[in-house]
Design a protein that fits this description.
312 residues; alpha/beta; Arc Repressor Mutant, subunit A; D-Maltodextrin-Binding Protein, domain 2; 13 helices; 45% helix; WH_DNA-bd_sf; DNA binding; transcription; LysR_subst-bd
Length: 312
């Protein structure tokens, strides 16, 4: 039994005449009569009464037509759903991200992606770099935004694209002596009570600070460990000390704070987007397209690499 048999039966029930039904279907009457007869043999019951007044469904035919109509509707819906999925309009995207990505990247990207793909279910997980890398390698995430490229077992199976550069800045409360200054030096920081990201959450940033200030620096050993950049800014506003974090945290100011450049400029690990190199998901492709449109620092070579990957 094929879909055309169902369409023929429904057309015949609607027009109540073999000739009119055949004309509506765009076929000759004899083939339609033969197909209906073949269908009745396959079903094992007479589906239509042929009378002088017209052709009408039998009780068996009425029962069959209810299911046939439903089956054709499901087939149509299946075709539509398959097309939407192939275009990345449905499905899900599991994204792991570091908190600082929410400062100036993710709000724009997620907003546009949500408007363009309202049928895609976003599953968002704030995670430290190490955790999101492990989850991505394990197949528990589709894409991750981390500080620095993924490292460790399985990282070689991932494709990583830098999507944001950053450098170190300091934030203080407006009552602090550094408030109002355009910059502070590294040597000045060594004598301050510092607020930094917890080493366990972002080891790449912690490594930069150890190199900058010295692994045994009293400023680091006595530093207040903050969960994320929002906590760093909040504690600085409270007068706890000098907060150190990525320059993108300037995008999240709060009353009673002042930001200073750290001199000489200290680069921090790039903000990096990673995904499985073998992933051909249309939803992922759609998300990467939004990333490309909103991250001008992704140079032509990297953009070309993404396009080649998605076209192969």
């Amino acid at each position: 039994m094929e879909a055309r048999h169902l369409r023929y039966a429904l057309a015949l029930a609607e027009h109540e005449h073999f000739g009119r039904a055949a004309q509506a279907l765009g076929i000759a009457q004899p083939p339609l009569s033969k197909q209906i007869a073949d269908l009745e043999r396959e079903v094992g019951a007479r589906l239509f009464d042929r009378t002088r007044q017209g052709v009408f469904p039998t009780a068996a035919g009425e029962a069959f037509l209810v299911r046939a109509r439903r089956a054709l509707e499901e087939m149509t819906a299946a075709t539509v759903d398959a097309g939407r999925a192939a275009r990345g309009e449905t499905g899900r995207l599991r994204l792991g991200f570091v908190a600082s990505a929410l400062l100036d990247l993710l709000p724009v990207v997620l907003g546009r992606f949500g408007r363009e793909r309202p049928g895609v279910r976003l599953e968002l997980h704030e995670m430290a770099t190490s955790g999101s890398t492990a989850a991505l390698v394990a197949g528990e995430l589709d894409v991750a935004i981390t500080l620095g490229p993924p490292r460790g077992a399985g990282a070689e199976r991932l494709l990583s694209v830098p999507i944001g550069h950053d450098h170190l800045v300091a934030v203080v409360g407006t009552a602090h002596p550094y408030a109002g200054r355009p910059s502070v030096s590294v040597s000045q920081l060594r004598d301050q009570r510092l607020i930094v990201s917890a080493a366990g959450d972002e080891p790449a940033v912690a490594a930069v600070l150890r190199t900058l200030l010295g692994a045994d620096s009293p400023a680091l050993t006595t530093a207040t460990a903050a969960r994320d950049v929002h906590t760093i800014v909040g504690l600085a506003a409270s007068g706890v000390g000098v907060g150190l974090g990525p320059s993108r945290m300037v995008s999240a100011p709060r009353p009673g704070t002042w930001f200073c450049e750290v001199t000489p400029r200290v680069p921090l690990p790039d903000l990096v987007l990673s995904f499985a190199a073998a992933d051909r998901s249309p939803v992922l492709a759609a998300f990467l397209d939004v990333i490309r449109r909103h991250c001008p620092i992704v140079d032509a070579a990297l953009d070309h690499r993404l396009r080649v990957l998605l076209d192969t």
